[in-house]
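Field reference: sequence -> structure
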Amino acid sequence: MKLAPRMIQSMEILQLPCMELEERIEKELAENVCLELQTADPDAPEAEHNREEAKEAAAEKSLGEQTLQVDSEHNNEADFERLLEMSRDWPEDNYTSGNKPSSNRIDDDSERQNDLVSNITERPQSLHEYLLEQLGFHSVPHEVREFGEFVIQNLDPNGRLPCPLQELIQVSGKQISDIDARAALQLIQRLDPPGCAAMNARECLLLQVTDETPLRDVLVTLISSHLEDLAQNRLPLIERKTGYPIPLIKEAYRELTRFNPFPGKGFESRPAQAVTPDVFVEQTSDGRWVVRLEDEYTPRLRISKRYQEMLRAGVDVKTKEYIKHKIDSAKWLIESIGQRHNTVKRVAQAIVDRQNGFLENGPEAITPLKMQEIADVVKVHVTTISRAVDDKWIQTPRGLYPLKRFFGGGTKTEDGDDVAWDIIRIKLKEIVDQEDKNDPLSDDALVLGLAKHGYNLARRTVTKYRKALDIPSSRQRRAY
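Structure field:
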């Protein structure tokens, strides 16, 4: 099946969250002269006058540039003919809009641009820039500095070497001895943050051990030979191999947790994105849960009356084709936004109807729900449900959640009952949090613990859920 461009546009509109929809509308308003905002008082003379002036200026510019959009049935030959006519009918001088600024105006614009630039938030310094800045403070031979800059510029986002030093020398194509290359690498490894320019996690951690580091010798031994044993909580084994008592190993391990195995990640600062809910759920006086959509960020649109009158009054063929195309595009956008509003509301209401237990009693009462079930209720395809909930958030009395949060599989207990994955997750975590860390529960014991709460699950199911929650095994959870 082939999808028409307008069908694709309609699906894109459905998938957009409210803030991105607002940006899309602003873009369409800037590009389509036949589309305008519907004000609170659309017939007010002042509002109409300002709107007409803005639309007229936009129309003159757009028509002057002849940015005509043709329907899919037009062939390439017609496109070339129209381009030739444009070159004859519209001289090059006509493409400039407005008067050329004077020299004084240019100076004013430059000053204003400088003011704007001075108010722009400074971009955070990258890891490579930070290291190159430090390298500049060291007096080293030219070839060492040049190769050091090459190494810094080729570090991965974690601050590690992408390949062994010998391969870097070959890739760089620089004439440098192994001694000078090693000197450049060692210089970079002494820069801040510590641990950069290492080949792996072990070398990265060793680079962070200094003469002033507490328990230096113990840390060097643990990092060099027993990282895997530490990860698996094999403290008695480390005790036997090293002769260090377990309390000393635990103290060194606490010191090791202060090290950073990924020194470059601290420079990937990303501002937190504010989440705007698309849907709100509220309880009525009779106890029903109903949804409403957030319309504050969705401007009301309408077709420009002026251009509709121009189309009816009769204009030349090119202008008529242009206006008709723009009006059709505006109508389709307005219909797509209306369809999005209706679909998202129906889908959200169907979800809320199935998840009353969650709203009233919390996450422990969530119901296993599949998108196909909601698709059957709303009577649309399951892919439409996926687009309708994608990147949409719902504000509930229990907090702000993504709409996808309410879809989740579950598992069948040995009694044949359906239990949501979230319920198993909560109960499993509660049992593990309350266990005796000196004698942690095995997976068999976790099965018995869940059974006491009424959830009879197979051992392999409990093991799968434990791993999905990143809960270590009983040996790894044991405290010494």
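Note: Strands lie at 35-37, 279-283, 289-293, 301-303, 393-396, 399-402, 410-412, 418-420.
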